[in-house]
Write a structure and sequence with these properties.
With about 180 residues, the protein is mainly α. The chain has six helices and five strands; from the N terminus they run αββαβαααββα. The protein is about 45% helix and about 10% strand. α4 crosses α5. The longest helix is centred in the first third of the chain and has 30 residues.
């Protein structure tokens, strides 16, 4: 009995050391090799972290490009979609409200010109990207609000188009808005 108890205590101490000390330090060490050194892929401006490469943010001012709506208000701790189907009346009302709001803030744009991504939330609720069309449809509003030419804003959008492997081209909304603020 005493022998079994001693073996159990030793095994418990070894497992605590492995699971509570060795393993966490090993994983922390491996994470240092990941992009961002284990702290996520942050985006900094003037030495201050303003966001993350892979997490969308809410922009509502007319002088900025708006990203994709989020069912979780861009809370990375609670990544999720709305889980409402395309025939759900509540969901359809939310989408219609987003369309109406977009049309009010973007005069001259018709309902048919609004890419679906600007009025529907992504599956994770954290999508930081838009399609180039989703950014281009906002150019007129931003140029007018900032009193700059549409061509300058359109060129800025084109410079921020990223091609990701075999997938579609995308524009990171945060990076684009930072570049917009840095225009002289």
């Amino acid at each position: 009995m005493k022998k079994n108890l001693l073996i159990s205590v030793k095994l418990t101490i070894v497992m605590i050391l492995i699971c509570a000390v060795v393993y966490p330090f090993l994983i922390a060490g491996i994470s240092k090799a990941a992009p961002g050194g284990g702290n996520g892929e942050t985006i900094t401006v003037n030495g201050k972290v303003v966001g993350y490469e892979k997490i969308g943010q809410k922009f509502t001012a007319d002088k900025y490009f708006w990203g994709r709506p989020s069912a979780v208000e861009y809370n990375a701790a609670g990544s999720a979609g709305s889980n409402k189907g395309p025939s759900n009346p509540g969901y359809l009302q939310i989408v219609q409200d987003r369309i109406d709001s977009f049309l009010v803030h973007n005069p001259g744009v018709t309902k048919g010109e609004i890419p679906a991504e600007l009025v529907t939330a992504s599956g994770s609720g954290l999508d930081p990207h838009l399609s180039p069309a989703g950014a281009q449809v906002q150019v007129k509003r931003i140029a007018a609000t900032r009193s700059i030419s549409e061509e300058i804003v359109r060129t800025l959008v084109n410079r921020h188009i990223e091609k990701k492997g075999l997938g579609p081209s995308v524009v990171n909304v945060l990076k684009l808005n930072i570049a917009l603020d840095q225009l002289k």
